[in-house]
Design goal:
7% strand, globular, single chain
Length: 575
């Protein structure tokens, strides 16, 4: 709070009269302005670092999209201690959210903070290039490309969550609060232009080692392929919808950029040949590739294309570069077999992001809503990806117990209405639980784009472009890696492929990774898969209703509508 001091006016006047010009030195002492700060490239590069730093802001990129917005889909319930735990996302889970939710505000605001940093850099770089005689011109080009990628990335996050948003192509200032939203087509064209300009100047991942946190050529191509895939899906599935006016089907172009990643030789489906990897989960025999890529040792693996870099640095709640993922998604309780009735011993997790029965059934090809599959019904646990994605009663977790020491104990599901838990983001006691100082210091990176995602994008784009044999080849690569990560012989290769097979494979491969809701929206399958589901936390009495024309996107935050003085207008479903 500002302190206001009351000084009699006559004393003030006496002071001013008594002060001669010689006495008053009007030159600021040790005051740094933007102009004095940005005197060379090293100073400007700090702003580039800040643009990356927004990615580590607590909650936004490690939690909201992975659990918050994802809970609107059919495969995830919010979870937590009870139905009042994190009520804002409980509302999203029920599709009862509103523009007043602070989570919706935070996502909007922090993305534009990230964009502001990129624009600060881009607006000043030409002057620095011209005046800093020691500058490395190739490095400048690389940083410009990185900032254009990040600007596109932040805009993409905004676009999949809110739809058409104001494009920020220069430094945001208060005068821009009254800027209306651009059309979705304009936002997509802007992102595509940024990425195409960036790609030639970015380095391959192998050239960045060990600085894997920087944007690579593969990351830009992968994001571009995803953006083109989204535009193509919107164009195909929402004809006549004014929100998607002007969008075009660009399947061949999406396939081109996905295959540039595939053919670069920079990435691989880890474990596709049955390799085993050292892990705390199985010190003696190692683990399969799919399990390993979701461990701390799997950070920046050969499958990693774009990850947000997290470390357990102990810097405190708002300053840490750690992640909330481990705490939010790990089971809350365990019990000792010698005392199974006492099940409230705390692991430390908060047990959010619970897989639903629909997700469990999908792994067994037994979700009755999925039609046209070429996979036969099986026990869900036959798919090695199941145990990595979903935990159920009888499963164990490694805990450092005060009495019995560090060992594997049965997880307690006493507080979990779905009788499931997400398992992709667990850490060992040594990696995290024994030494953390606060809850958002999780050291595991946030995996935003995996190589498997790109292979699945290529399969979808190829199928929609009319090349079913190529689509089948890519889908079977995904299924082979899954199969070789276990010892069940499943999932087997498909001999034919449908679009439903592609939808199904994305669902399994990317389970609990936050993309399901946005995929359902772009495919216009959200009504089919979300309306009519029941939430275990609320019993059979509550049935979710997805309203087309409204729930495809989240509402613009109420306070942004107010600040814009009416320039920002909600889509019709939210008016």
């Amino acid at each position: 709070m500002k302190k206001i001091y009351s000084i009699p006016v006559f004393l003030t006047m006496m002071f001013l009269v008594a002060c001669s010009e010689d006495f008053l030195d009007l030159k600021p002492i040790a005051m740094e302005t933007e102009e004095t700060f940005y005197k060379d490239f090293d100073a400007l590069d700090m702003t580039a670092t800040a643009a990356y730093g927004i990615l580590c802001t607590r909650d936004i990129f490690d939690y909201y999209i992975f659990m918050g917005y994802a809970s609107a889909a059919d495969d995830v319930e919010v979870g937590g201690e009870n139905t009042n735990d994190w009520p804002q996302f409980q509302a999203v889970d029920r599709l009862q959210h509103s523009p007043m939710l602070s989570t919706i505000f935070d996502s909007w605001g922090y993305c534009y903070k990230g964009i502001r940093m990129t624009n600060e850099f881009l607006s000043r770089v030409d002057k620095i290039r011209a005046t800093d005689t020691k500058v490395n011109q190739a490095l400048v080009d690389q940083r410009i490309a990185e900032m254009k990628f990040l600007r596109a990335f932040y805009h993409f996050y905004l676009a999949v969550v809110y739809g058409g948003v104001p494009i920020a192509d220069k430094i945001v200032d208060p005068s821009m609060f009254s800027t209306p939203r651009n059309s979705l087509k304009e936002v997509y064209d802007f992102m595509i232009k940024d990425l195409k300009e960036a790609i030639p100047y970015l380095k391959e991942k192998s050239q960045l080692a060990p600085n894997y946190g920087r944007v690579s050529k593969g990351a830009a191509r992968a994001l571009l392929a995803k953006i083109l895939l989204y535009e193509s899906s919107y164009a195909k599935n929402y004809p006549g919808d004014e929100r998607f006016a002007g969008m075009q089907e660009r399947w061949t172009e999406a396939l081109q950029y996905a295959e540039e990643v595939i053919n670069s030789g920079e990435y691989q489906l880890v474990g596709i040949n049955g390799e085993r990897f050292a892990s705390w989960r199985n010190p003696n025999g190692g683990v399969g590739g799919y399990r390993w890529i979701f461990t701390l040792d799997g950070d920046n693996s050969p499958e990693s294309i774009w990850e947000i870099q997290n470390v357990m640095d102990g810097k405190g709640w708002t300053y840490t570069r750690g992640s909330y993922i481990v705490t939010y998604f790990t089971v809350r309780y365990y019990y000792r077999p010698s005392d199974p009735t006492h099940s409230d011993r705390v692991v430390g997790g908060w047990s959010f992001n619970l897989p639903t029965s629909y997700m469990v059934n999908a792994f067994g090809n037994q979700d009755s809503r999925e039609t046209g599959l070429h996979s036969v019904p099986v026990d869900p646990k036959l798919d090695p990806r199941f145990a990595t994605s979903i935990g159920r009663p009888g499963d164990t977790i490694l805990v450092n117990d005060q009495t019995e020491g560090e060992k594997w104990f049965p997880m307690s599901f006493s507080n979990l209405p779905t009788q499931t838990i997400s398992r992709k983001y667990e850490c060992s006691p040594q990696e995290y639980w024994n030494g953390r100082t606060n809850d958002n210091e999780g050291p595991m990176n946030v995996r935003w784009i995996r190589y498997a995602d790109v292979v699945l994008m290529a399969a979808e784009a190829a199928y929609m472009a009319g090349d079913k044999p190529k689509a089948l080849t890519y889908i079977n690569q995904i299924r082979k890696r899954a199969r070789m990560s276990g010892n069940t012989g499943y999932p087997e290769d498909l001999t034919d492929i449908s679009f439903e097979d592609i939808v199904h494979e994305r669902r399994l491969e990317l389970a609990m990774e936050g993309w399901r809701f946005f995929d359902l929206v772009r495919w216009r399958l959200a009504k089919k898969y979300i309306s009519g589901i029941t939430l275990a936390a609320l019993g059979e009495g509550y049935v979710v209703d997805f309203e087309e024309g409204k729930h495809e996107f989240f509402p613009i935050p109420y306070n942004e509508i107010q600040l814009s003085k009416g320039a920002l207008v909600q889509y019709k479903g939210w008016q």
